[in-house]
Here is the input.
Amino acid sequence: MTMFLRIFDVEHGACAMIMKENGSALAMVDCGDNITTGWSPSTYIKNNLGKTNVDYLLITNTDQDHLSDLAGLRKSGIAISNLVSNTLFPNNALRQIKLKYGPLTADMDEFINMRENFGAPGVGVVPFNQVMGGITYKIFNHSYPTFTDTNNLSCVYFISYGSFKIMFPGDLEKAGWREHLRNPQFVAELQSTTILVASHHGRDNGFSEEAFRNLKFRAVVISDKSIVHSTQETVPDYRTVVNPLGIVVTNRPQRRHVLTTRRDGDILFRVVPDGSFDVSVG
Here is the structure.
């Protein structure tokens, strides 16, 4: 059965959805929205998918651009069955960090309340692979106070179906990458990754030469807004860590190495059980 994994254009934000072709279950990685177009995951799930439930919500980074429609999900009547986030980053520490920059947003308040109500996020729930029909994930994250910034406390998710594996590293920065490289299990997952979603929306502080040395991904995906800062000019860097053959975009017959939501819009991967896949954009 085919897996559909769609990375949405939410400008400087993050949102991806994962479904099997029968539409029986839905997992979502982050829940950013697009202020310019008015697109939001809550509206899409309700109106386009005709669903009122997200089976799994996986949060990478606890910044607003990864959470910006979380309160909107509840207001739209969409329930979340299972929440996964960094259990080594306690709510009291998260609250203190966020309050340094002003009052909590409605989405951050929603997130903290959800974590408290769910107990230990991701624990005592129906396993992801059972819900998602053979799709699996592995999670890696650092602890607080080993790191005290939200970027390096991002959860890193490896989502696999057959031999296909896509990595969502949140907003992990160079120091966080370096610490993960001390873990042989993390290194093994990284070395077998098919598609890399660029950390920190492709900003240069999320690119790790140490982590990507000698690796050749099939493609890299950058979720970001139009380029206005020099720190966004990283496509040439990411192209160096992609297999020279890249991938062919099926609805725009061209070979690509780096896909970006600012250029391509939504990016859809269709993956069959053995891990073979194709990609379309727009």
In short: The first helix runs from residue 41 to 48. The chain has eleven helices and 15 strands.
